[in-house]
């Protein structure tokens, strides 16, 4: 299941760093935040 060394946390750090840089560069921060909130919701539902 872990695609990158370090596992789940490392994957999240890399993913959100890239997303953050893209968001700052393109001024789509509100869209990224809403997508992030949806992803967090889906993850919490999946673990419940």
Describe the overall structure.
- With 48 residues, this protein is mainly α.
- Helices cover 79% and strands 0% of the residues.
- It has 2 helices and no strands.
- The protein is flat.
- The two termini are 19 Å apart.
Q: What is the compact description of this entry?
A:
With 48 residues, the protein is mostly helical. It has helices at 8-26, 29-47.
> How many E strands?
0
What is the tally of helical segments?
Answer: 2
Label the overall shape.
Answer: flat
| Secondary structure: helix percent | over 70%
Q: Which percent band covers the strand fraction?
A: under 5%
SSE topology string: HH
Structural class: mainly alpha
Low-confidence region ranges: none
List keywords for this structure.
single chain; about 50 residues; mainly alpha; 2 helices; about 0% strand; flat
How would you summarize the topology of this molecule?
Blueprint: H1 8-26, H2 29-47
